[in-house]
Design goal:
It is built from 2 helices and 12 strands, in the order ββββββαβββββαβ. It is an alpha/beta fold. It has one domain: Nucleoside Triphosphate Pyrophosphohydrolase, CATH 3.90.79. The strands form 3 sheets. A 5-stranded mixed sheet has the order 6-3-10-7-12, with helices on both faces. The longest helix has 13 residues. It starts with a strand and ends with a strand. The relative contact order is 0.27.
Amino acid sequence: MTGRRDYYHDPNAPQATTIVAGGSAIVTDQLGRILLQRRADSGNWALPGGVMDIGETLEQCVIREVREETGLDIEITGLVGIYTDPAHVIAYDDGEVRQQFNITFTGTVTGGELQRSNESTDVRFVHPADLDALPMHETIRLRLRHFAERRSTPYLG
């Protein structure tokens, strides 16, 4: 697993060299808890998701990534927002520096069994009241705030 470091509105951030289309999902259970994974590469809690493969739609990508990272099958139920802030860059150990590009959907579980992958050290549903206590990048917190606001239109930014 390649290490990564997120920079957010940091004047010392490296210059982005790539943009890669990716997506994530805010998946909730019947109790309103949110599916999160603790990333092996950063130690932060995050939404499951990843980058598109050639030949798939972004929705297919998110469904595939959630299955790979959590063991759960989901269906997409809505759109939280589009996150493309050029002041959020992600530097990887291999030298790649990506500008943020993420579309975050909502989803519900349709099957599968909760399990962690080699990309995570833990996977669980977390009650919204417990989110503040978890180590999490500010951009994930931003998406969770937008979800909690129950916006009538998706966030664009």
